[in-house]
Design a protein that fits this description.
It is a single chain. The protein is built from ten helices and 16 strands. The protein starts with 5 loop residues before the first helix and ends with a helix. The protein folds into two domains: 82 residues; 370 residues, no CATH class. The protein has 486 residues and is of the alpha+beta class.
C-alpha cells in the first residue's frame, strides 16, 4: 500500500469547498480592502483639528519656490522717439522661499466648512548663481503713471494741476530703484508725499492704495490683510475644497457679473476622484480671478502618479473667444492675453499676462523689444493625486505690466506712445514633499499589492476547482476501464 500525501487525503468535496472559499476570499480582498482603503482615505481627508491632514494644511511643511525676473528698461531716454520701441532686458532670477500659514481657523461642523485667512512670508535665498537684490532696475514710474491714468478723464483745469504736481516733485517717466526697494522694502517718492497731503486726492485722484512708501509687495509680506477670510467646503465629496465665500461675500468686487462670482477651489486640494472630463476651476488669489483648468495628462511626480490640469490657450480671454468673458474687460477691453487688473490695484493701470506675453495677441510683443533670459517652462498647471485630490505639484506664472499711454493736457505724458510695459514676472512652484508624499506613495502602491494578492488567490481557487474536476474525471475513467477489463 502506497503512502498518500496530505493533499491526496483530502476528500474531493472538501477540495471543492476550499476552492470556492479561495474565490470568495479573492473577491473579498479585492473589493473589501478597496472599501477599507477608501474609508481610510476619507478619514485622513476630514478636517479634524489635530489630524495629520489638518496639520499639513495649516502650514506648509516645506517652503514653496518663488522666482522673480525684472525687466530693465535700457532706452528710457528715447521713449518719445516714435521710431524706437521701448527696449528691455530680462534680469534674474531673484529666488525666494514662500511660507504660507493659515490663521484664524474656524471649523463649522453644521455645514462642513472651514473659515480661515492666510499669511505669506517671503525669505530671500542668497545664491552665488543668482542676481543680487541690490541690482538697480530702470522701470516705468508707477506713481506718476497711475496719476496719468486717472487724469486721462479729468477736466483741463485738473490736468493742469496734475502737471504742476509732476513738475513740482520733479517726477520723470522712469525710476531707478533696487530690486529690494521695488519688491518688499519700498521707496520714498516725492509725488507720493505730495498727493497724500491733499484731502481725498490720495485714493480718488491717484487711484492707488497709498502707504508711506511704494513697493509692489510693500507691507504685504507676512500679513493676512490681503488674503482672506475664505470659507471652504470640507466635506469629503464632489464639492470638497469648493469656495463658499471670499471676505464673507459670494462675489468679488474686482469684476462685474459672472466674472466676479465666487466658485471653484483655491488649488490646495481637489475633490477625490475628480472627473477628468470636467474642468477644475481654481481661484488665483494673486489675480482675483477664477481659471478653468483642463485635464492634460498623467505624469510621475517623485514616485507618485499625478493628474495634470492646465488652462487652455485663452486663459486671459476678454470676450474674443467667449462672449461671457467680456466682464473681464472692466471698462477697457484690450486684445486677448492680458487681464485688466486695475480694480485689484486700486484702479492703477496694472495688466497681467503670462510671462513673455505667452498665448497673448502679438500686438503686445510687437510693441516692445525684449532680451529674454528665462527659458524655462512658462505655462501654469496644477497636478493632483487622482484618488485623494491632494496637491502634488503646481506652477503659477504671471507677468505684471503697466499701460503707458499719452494723456492730452498732461505735460509729462502728452507725447508718449501707447504701449504695455513689462515690469516683472513671478514664477511660483509648489512641490509636495515629506510625509504627505510618503503617504501618497503608499496609497498608490497598496492597490497594486491588493490586486496581485487577489489575482493569486483567485488563480489558486480556480486551479483547485479545475484540479478536482480533472481528478474526478480521471477516477471515473479508471473505474470505467476496470469494468471493461473484467
Amino acid at each position: 500500500m502506497t503512502k498518500r500525501g496530505f493533499f491526496n487525503n483530502i476528500k474531493p468535496k472538501n477540495k471543492l469547498f476550499f476552492g470556492v472559499l479561495l474565490i470568495f476570499l479573492s473577491y473579498l480582498i479585492k473589493f473589501g480592502t478597496e472599501s477599507l482603503i477608501n474609508l481610510i482615505i476619507r478619514s485622513q481627508l476630514e478636517f479634524v483639528e489635530g489630524s495629520y491632514h489638518f496639520r499639513m494644511w495649516r502650514a506648509n511643511e516645506y517652503p514653496y519656490e518663488v522666482e522673480f525676473y525684472f525687466f530693465n528698461w535700457t532706452n528710457s531716454d528715447r521713449v518719445r522717439d516714435p521710431n524706437i520701441k521701448p527696449r528691455f532686458e530680462e534680469i534674474g532670477p531673484y529666488r525666494f522661499e514662500l511660507y504660507i500659514n493659515r490663521t484664524d481657523i474656524r471649523i463649522h461642523h453644521e455645514n462642513s466648512s472651514v473659515t480661515y485667512a492666510f499669511t505669506k512670508r517671503f525669505v530671500h535665498i542668497p545664491n552665488m548663481a543668482d542676481r543680487s537684490l541690490d541690482d538697480v532696475i530702470i522701470t516705468l514710474n508707477p506713481i506718476a503713471n497711475a496719476l496719468a491714468y486717472q487724469a486721462r478723464q479729468w477736466s483741463a483745469f485738473l490736468k493742469f494741476g496734475a502737471s504742476l504736481a509732476l513738475r513740482a516733485t520733479k517726477s520723470e517717466l522712469f525710476v531707478k530703484k533696487t530690486v529690494q526697494e521695488l519688491l518688499f522694502e519700498g521707496y520714498d517718492d516725492p509725488l507720493l508725499d505730495f498727493v497724500q497731503k491733499i484731502p481725498n486726492f490720495a485714493t480718488q485722484g491717484l487711484g492707488m492704495e497709498l502707504k508711506d512708501k511704494f513697493g509692489y509687495f510693500y507691507k504685504r509680506n507676512y500679513t493676512d490683510l490681503y488674503f482672506g477670510p475664505y470659507n471652504v467646503h470640507v466635506n469629503v465629496d464632489e464639492f470638497y475644497g469648493n469656495i463658499h465665500t471670499i471676505k464673507n461675500s459670494t462675489t468679488t468686487p474686482y469684476f462685474p457679473g459672472t466674472c466676479g462670482r465666487v466658485h471653484g477651489k483655491l488649488g490646495e486640494f481637489a475633490d477625490p476622484g475628480h472627473d477628468q472630463t470636467q474642468p477644475m476651476v481654481v481661484y488665483v488669489h494673486d489675480l482675483n480671478v477664477f481659471t478653468n483648468n483642463y485635464f492634460l495628462e498623467e505624469r510621475m511626480f517623485n514616485g507618485v502618479v499625478g493628474s495634470v490640469y492646465a488652462p487652455k490657450d485663452y486663459i486671459f480671454d476678454n470676450g474674443t473667444y467667449d462672449k461671457s468673458n467680456e466682464c473681464f474687460c472692466f471698462g477697457e477691453c484690450v486684445p486677448v492675453g492680458m487681464l485688466n487688473s486695475s480694480a485689484t490695484f486700486a484702479h492703477a493701470p496694472i495688466f497681467m499676462s503670462l510671462p513673455h506675453f505667452l498665448l497673448a495677441d502679438p500686438v503686445y510683443q510687437n510693441g516692445v523689444d525684449i532680451v529674454y533670459r528665462d527659458n524655462s517652462s512658462l505655462m501654469p498647471y496644477i497636478a493632483v493625486e487622482q484618488t485623494t485630490g491632494l496637491l502634488l505639484d503646481g506652477s503659477l506664472n504671471i507677468q505684471l505690466n503697466m499701460l503707458l499711454q499719452p494723456v492730452k493736457g498732461l505735460g509729462l505724458f502728452s507725447d508718449v506712445p501707447r504701449v504695455f510695459m513689462p515690469v516683472f514676472s513671478m514664477k511660483q512652484h509648489v512641490v509636495t514633499r515629506g510625509g504627505y508624499l510618503d503617504l501618497l506613495v503608499v496609497l498608490q502602491k497598496v492597490p497594486i499589492v491588493i490586486n496581485c494578492l487577489s489575482f493569486l488567490t483567485l488563480a489558486a481557487g480556480v486551479g483547485l476547482l479545475l484540479f478536482v474536476r480533472i481528478s474526478l474525471n480521471d477516477n471515473l475513467y479508471r473505474e470505467y476501464r476496470q469494468v471493461q477489463t473484467k
